[in-house]
Each structure stands twice: as structure tokens, then as C-alpha cells.
TrEMBL record:
<dbReference type="GO" id="GO:0006024">
    <property type="term" value="P:glycosaminoglycan biosynthetic process"/>
</dbReference>
<comment type="similarity">
    <text>Belongs to the UDP-glucose/GDP-mannose dehydrogenase family.</text>
</comment>
<feature type="binding site">
    <location>
        <begin position="279"/>
        <end position="282"/>
    </location>
    <ligand>
        <name>NAD(+)</name>
    </ligand>
</feature>
<feature type="binding site">
    <location>
        <position position="263"/>
    </location>
    <ligand>
        <name>substrate</name>
    </ligand>
</feature>
<dbReference type="Pfam" id="PF03721">
    <property type="entry name" value="UDPG_MGDP_dh_N"/>
</dbReference>
<feature type="binding site">
    <location>
        <begin position="223"/>
        <end position="227"/>
    </location>
    <ligand>
        <name>substrate</name>
    </ligand>
</feature>
<keyword id="KW-0560">Oxidoreductase</keyword>
<feature type="binding site">
    <location>
        <position position="349"/>
    </location>
    <ligand>
        <name>NAD(+)</name>
    </ligand>
</feature>
<dbReference type="GO" id="GO:0051287">
    <property type="term" value="F:NAD binding"/>
</dbReference>
<feature type="active site" description="Nucleophile">
    <location>
        <position position="279"/>
    </location>
</feature>
<feature type="binding site">
    <location>
        <begin position="164"/>
        <end position="168"/>
    </location>
    <ligand>
        <name>substrate</name>
    </ligand>
</feature>
<dbReference type="InterPro" id="IPR028356">
    <property type="entry name" value="UDPglc_DH_euk"/>
</dbReference>
<dbReference type="Pfam" id="PF00984">
    <property type="entry name" value="UDPG_MGDP_dh"/>
</dbReference>
<feature type="binding site">
    <location>
        <begin position="341"/>
        <end position="342"/>
    </location>
    <ligand>
        <name>substrate</name>
    </ligand>
</feature>
<feature type="binding site">
    <location>
        <begin position="134"/>
        <end position="135"/>
    </location>
    <ligand>
        <name>NAD(+)</name>
    </ligand>
</feature>
<dbReference type="InterPro" id="IPR036220">
    <property type="entry name" value="UDP-Glc/GDP-Man_DH_C_sf"/>
</dbReference>
<feature type="binding site">
    <location>
        <position position="37"/>
    </location>
    <ligand>
        <name>NAD(+)</name>
    </ligand>
</feature>
Amino acid sequence: MGKDIKNICCIGAGYVGGPTMAVIALKNPQIQVNIVDINEQRITDWNDTDLDKLPIYEPGLKEVVEETRNKNLFFSTDVDTAIDNADMIFISVNTPTKTYGKGKGQAADLKYIELCARQIARVSKTDKIVVEKSTLPVRTAEALQGILSSTGNGVKFEILSNPEFLAEGTAIDDLLIPDRVLIGGNNTVSGKEAKNALSSIYEAWIPKERVLQTNVWSSELSKLTANAFLAQRISSINAMSVLCEETEADVDEIARAIGMDSRIGPKFLKSSVGFGGSCFQKDVLNLVYIAKSYGLDEVAEYWDQVIKLNDYQKRRFADKIIKESYNTVSGKKIAFFGWAFKKDTNDTRESAAIYVADHLLDEQADIIVYDPKVSEERIYADLEYLNTHSSEEIRNRVKVVSSHSEAVNNAHAIAILTEWDEFKAYNWKEIYSKVLKPANVFDGRNILDKEKLVNVGFNVYNIGK
Ligand code: UDX
Ligand code: ADP
């Protein structure tokens, strides 16, 4: 089965499915790639002739879509037809943390995956390779296999795990030049054939030695492990930032010093207001849940601490703003520079900005947000989702503006929540003339030139300095 893949279907046109399939289509012009989604608006946006209206902002993405769309890359809501025609189906739907029932707040919610599996089982008339692309808890492939093998119509499915390691903001580069591609599958004859079929798609542009084949469970657990290690590095450096603030040490100097140790390496040592994004928290919580479900309490507690430290870091940042505002932000205007969870993306899932804003709203602050790529509706939706403040209060207290200069008028403080490059290039003298004095800047990303700002007249508060 599946030696020669001619038609691919990807279920889920999101941050993972969209860019990944666009690059696969670009590098495999002989394969027809159909991306399907139940969200009609998303599909309409992907098909928009104005490429600036694509639903996802990702550097380099629109160029790839421009080259492939309606040639061998198609976006549609017709899920059944795309499944039926495909030799290989990628499942790329979202797997958020459960918000109800058993495992609430920790386990991954697999209802979207299960719906997909049932749909594939119902519609398929020919044998297919089904690829898990979404981050999934270990042994999900088993559940998929269970649903798919019970159709009784003789159709055979081979399940592969092919976790995505792209980071948002650099997704296209990560896809074009990945450190590695991981393919997990059964070690049976048909399992090996399926792994080779998927490998050959990647080998169209990636050196063979970077395409690793493992068993399914190793592949699934590798993804959680990679994200847990990365999140742990950030929580580790953030833990040191707290100690630095109490001493004369500077966390960026420490990061530089330890990063030159080749055993440690320089990446992912940037202390910040806290990590966000759709993966880190979800995957670490998932790991905690899995460890607990095997009765491994010590293992669960070890990883849970990564999340606790991250929550503490977000809270600490908000508390610092309050403390330096004479212990009250009630009715004061706090300008937020950035809302996305990192630069170069319009994704806001689990962004630190949401939690810092929520804490400041508890203290009745007025918040003016400027982010170069995030929409007003998204910001309101993020705050409303927390269910801690009424929609009316959020809309009264939080305003979203389309330029940084609008945000700073009569602001009591400026808080940097995302490390967008443009923030560094602003005319800080002009900003100084518009804000209330004392002029306080809270740099939650340590990106600004502190000396320059201090010379202009600002008080600058950093993380870990
Ligand atoms: C992550 C993984 O990097 C990627 O491999 C996986 O497929 C998905 O999850 P992503 O969430 O897109 O990718 O972004 P990443 O660059 O990892 O950043 C995550 C968060 O950590 C961001 O909020 C970022 O600002 C923060 N971060 C990152 C730091 O605070 N300090 C750092 O040194 C690095
Ligand atoms: P990710 O970051 O994992 O790509 P997103 O939320 O950006 O997550 O994208 C997941 C997409 O999957 C969404 O656009 C959602 O509408 C889509 N989706 C979820 N369930 C289904 C389903 N059963 N059939 C088709 N699309 C689905």
C-alpha cells in the first residue's frame, strides 16, 4: 500500500496543516494536495485572491501559497470527497487541553481527532495511510487504529505518527530546512512500506539522513519530550531571573555565559514574561497527565513545576507593574505593546499578554493594546474565554488601537509583551513626550536599549536585571 502517493488530503487548515501542506505541495508538484476544514470562513480566507488575507500570518507563507494554490494545492470544505480521493490523509486538527470532565485542565481533548477518524472510516472505499500530524498523547495511534479497523468493509488503514516541529513565525524556514523529520509506524511489512512512502515525500527536499523512522510510540512521545525540554529551559532561565532581580546579577549575562558551554548551547535561554503558544503548556500538561495516569507522581510533579514557574512569571510581571505604579493601577492607562505569544505571528493562544491583562483587570486597570498583527476581535475573544471578567467590563476597560502612538497618549505605563522588532525602532523621545510622568516602561522581553531609554527620561524595568 501507498508506495506511490498521488493524492494527499489534510484535515485541518490551521497553523500546522496550512504551512506544512503548502510546502509539501511546493516540493512535490506531482502530488495533488487537498486541505479541508469544517470552518468555512477559514477556507474562504485561504482561497482569497488577496494573499494578505490568508488566515495565518507567517513570513514566506504567502509566496509558497501563491506558487502552488489551484495548481496542486487546493482548499475546500468538502471533507468527504477529499478523504475518498486520497492515498494519504494527514490529521491536523486541534487538540486543546480538556476543559471538562476527566483530565480537565491537563489531558488533551481528542474529540476532534476521533470525529476525523470516524469520518475517514465512514467515507473510505480504498486503502489509506493515515498520518497523525497534531500533537497527540502517547498511544493515540492505537485509538485511531481501533476506530479505523472496525469498519468491516475490508478497507485497510496504516497509521503513522509524524509530529510537527515547526515553530510559528519561522514555520516556512523550519519546514524547508528542518533539523529532522520524524516518522513513527508499525514495524510490519505494510507499516514499513507506509513509512517509506511518507519518507519519500519529505526526501523530495530533505536529506535522507534527517528523516528518522521509529516505532509509533517513540515518535509520539518524542514530540511531547521535545516541547517539555524546551519549555523547561525557559522556566529554568526564568527561575534564575527572579534570583537575578534580588541580587546584582543580570539574567542576559548569565544566559550568554552558560550558552557558550557547548553542552548547554545558546538557544531558548531568553528570559521573558513567560512562554505561550498552543504547544508548550498543552504538551507539558499532557505529559503530567500521562505520568499521573501511570501512577508516576514524582515524574508528574517534576514537569508540573515547569508550568507553575511559568504562571508565576506572568503574575510577577503584572505585580511589578502594580507595585511600581504606587501599588494601584485602578483607572490607570497601561499601554500594551504586543499581544501575540511571540513575534512574527498573529497567533495568541496562551499568550502571556492575556494573563497579564487579566490580572491587571482584576485591579481595574484600563488597557490599551497595540499589536502589529492581532485583530481586535481576537483580543476580546482571548479575554472573554477566561471567563473572569464580563464581556461588558472587558470592552469598557480594554481598547485596541492600530498604532503604537495612539496607545501611549497619557499612558501611566508601557508594557512590552511581545518581542516585535518594530518596538525597538520607535522614536522613544516622542513616546516620552506623550506619556504621563514618571514614565515607566516594563520590558517583559528585554528587547529595548535600556541606556537609551533611561537617557530619554524613562524608568525601565526588566526581567531578571
Ligand atoms: C514550539 C516548538 O518550538 C515547536 O518545535 C513545536 O512544534 C511547537 O511549539 P512555538 O510555540 O510556535 O513552537 O514557538 P517557540 O518559538 O517555541 O516559542 C514558544 C514560547 O516560548 C513563546 O511565547 C516564546 O516567546 C517563548 N520563548 C522562547 C521564551 O520566552 N524564551 C526563549 O528563549 C524562547
Ligand atoms: P493547529 O495549530 O494544530 O494547526 P488550529 O486550531 O490552527 O490548530 O487548526 C485546526 C483546524 O482543524 C481548525 O481550522 C479546525 O476548524 C479544523 N478542524 C477541527 N476538527 C475538524 C474536523 N472534524 N474536520 C475538519 N476540520 C476540522
